[in-house]
Specification:
alpha+beta; 5 helices
Length: 196
């Protein structure tokens, strides 16, 4: 079995993503997001893919977080999916752009109520005295909203990573792995096989 070469790498990603969702992984949407400061100091963390289409890959976050601050000063980012049971990896390089307010509102409304409240409770990436402080803030916001609707906070939204390159990696015996990289051009996508 080899990596199929399709015209659109998003379609190939969807095929592999569907496989990942069927193979029993606890969180197949988990992806490593790498950002960097304006002067190039990198940092990485795991986030969850919430949607993908031909425009790019979407995740959500607190806009006061370290990742959001770094994206605002340097929008060039990288994503990495690694689905070990499948022996497959996808690396994505591109630019992070803010999603629309309508997209963010719709996704926030679809979240579990406790997760909506948690968005208010967490001052993401800021110092905290201890875990009890987070629990206390969650309880305070739960009381504040009661049984009513929890609106999306202004400080919470999403980013779409618009890809400039997408690399597909497939594990093969004896470390003779397959690598196929798609690069975006003005006229579409070009492909190039790489040595492992």
């Amino acid at each position: 079995m080899s990596i199929p070469k399709l015209d659109n790498p998003i379609e190939l990603f969807r095929q592999w993503f569907d496989e990942a969702k069927q193979c029993g992984l606890r969180e197949p949407t988990a992806m490593c997001l790498s950002t960097a400061t304006r002067d190039g100091a990198p940092s990485s963390r795991m986030v969850l893919l919430k949607s993908v289409d031909d425009r790019g890959f979407v995740f959500y976050t607190n806009l006061g977080s370290r990742k959001a601050g770094e994206i605002e000063s340097n929008s060039r980012v990288a994503l990495n999916f690694y689905w070990m049971p499948l022996g497959k990896q996808v690396r994505i390089e591109g630019v992070a752009e803010s999603v629309s307010s309508e997209e963010a509102d719709a996704y926030f409304a679809s979240r579990d109520r406790q997760s909506q409240i948690g968005a208010y409770a967490s001052k993401q990436s800021q110092p905290i005295e201890g875990y009890f402080e987070l629990e206390r803030r969650a309880a305070e916001f739960a009381l504040k909203f009661g049984v009513g609707k929890v609106p999306r906070p202004e400080f919470w939204s999403g980013y779409r990573v618009v890809p400039s390159a997408i690399e597909f990696w497939m594990e093969k015996p004896f470390r003779l792995h397959e690598r196929l990289v798609y690069s975006r051009t003005e006229s579409g996508w070009t492909t190039q096989w790489l040595f492992p």
